[in-house]
Amino acid sequence: MQGLSPAAIASIARDFRVFQVGAGAPVRRDGDDPAGAFLVLTGEVEARTAVGTGRDATVSVFRPGECFGLLSAVGQTAPLLSFKTRQDSDLAWIPCSRLAHWMTQEPALLRNVVGQAARHLRLIDDHLFVQMAHKVEGRLRMELARLFLEAGGLEPGRRLRPAPGHAALAVSIGANREAVSRTMSVFNQSGIIRSGRQWIELLDPQRLTYDLNFPEP
Length: 217
Description:
By secondary structure, the chain is an alpha+beta fold. It has helices spanning 6-13, 70-73, 96-105, 107-133, 136-150, 166-173, 177-189, 205-209; strands at 17-21, 26-29, 36-42, 45-50, 56-62, 67-68, 82-85, 89-95, 159-160, 193-196, 199-202. It folds into 2 domains: 6-133, Jelly Rolls (Sandwich); 136-209, Arc Repressor Mutant, subunit A (Orthogonal Bundle). Helix 3 (96-105) packs across helix 4 (107-133), helix 5 (136-150) packs across helix 6 and helix 6 (166-173) packs across helix 7.
């Protein structure tokens, strides 16, 4: 709602329907009726799609203040996505016809919608690139590097606490849990990381990120 007047926000808000979704529950799948866009009020919603492994992988995460289902509102399509909550979430839904109406009335809303849709589409493209370009070891190294960067940086001694478990890492990279567990064991034995219950410590950043082709910004 950046750049909109309080009066415009109040008018648009009247077209939203607020509802709650429990943790781990599906929200919608692209192509389902009725068509509409969703605003995350509380909680988190992850977008998932099938990758080359035949498994679903998380390709984007929507947090409070972010919308999903926007591409249909601007007449575009995206890879087939499914959406589910990571935790108990409050969401607001607006029909695409009403959102399209408000975008014609409020240029600031149009800029917000197009900008956010483009940003998340790029994230989806980047994740799909990673899934296709790397085997399990490469995808896991890239995911760990991303998590360490989000935690503050890639330097020896950096810790993730709490850290995602092997099952959560497998979901994130579209692999099975056994393959992730074996690879994490190799990383531990080779001195790249050290890990325990709900923590992972980075020991050798250079070896973790060696020969990884990160998508360019």
